């Protein structure tokens, strides 16, 4: 659905198809700012949060939100929960099933890391923490393998869903 990823452009002009879904169309029409600048800014913030072309793609969700709010929106107190309905719709329409599953996996890995980080290492927790730490490498390797597979699938499909020829893949 996202045709152009360039935050210097007006989101709606760069991605006119995004005005078709009812949720986005209503958000667009309710924007009274000149050239729909306010809603464009929010839509780019959502794209920076979720799109695979985002420069923030390798950060945790919480870090992404903090940096996008302060660096892009220039609002450190930005309330992401107020636009959660737009974020959910963006995910639903723009992410493949595999991308959605990978995103869920990333969120759980972040939760797991936070849990381990915040748990004290003591006589009550050492066995559980040792076991979790021992399993961390296996879990991350599976995740990275899945991520690599998804990236190779993304690279092997060209516009219109056709598969690249052997010459386009650089094999011949």
Question: What topology emerges from the helices and strands here?
Answer:
Layout: H1 11-14, H2 22-30, H3 37-50, H4 61-72, H5 84-94, H6 97-118, H7 126-156
Helix pairs in contact: 3-5, 6-7
What does this structure look like?
With 172 residues, the protein is mostly helical. The chain has 2 domains: 1-95, no CATH class; 96-172. The chain is built from 7 helices and no strands. The protein has helices at 11-14, 22-30, 37-50, 61-72, 84-94, 97-118, 126-156. α3 crosses α5 and α6 (97-118) packs antiparallel against α7 (126-156). The longest helix has 31 residues, at 126-156. The radius of gyration is 20 Å and the shape is elongated. It starts with 10 loop residues before the first helix and ends in a 16-residue tail after the last helix. 11% of the residues are buried. The model has no long low-confidence stretch (mean pLDDT 88).
- Give the overall average pLDDT: 88
Biggest sheet character: none
What is the approximate shape?
Answer: elongated
Strand content bin: under 5%
Report the uncertain regions.
Answer: none
Please tell me the total number of domains: 2
Oligomeric status of the shown chains?
A: single chain
In short:
The protein is mostly helical. It is built from seven helices and no strands.
Task: Name the features.
single chain, 172 residues, mainly alpha, 2 domains, 7 helices, 60% helix, 0% strand, elongated
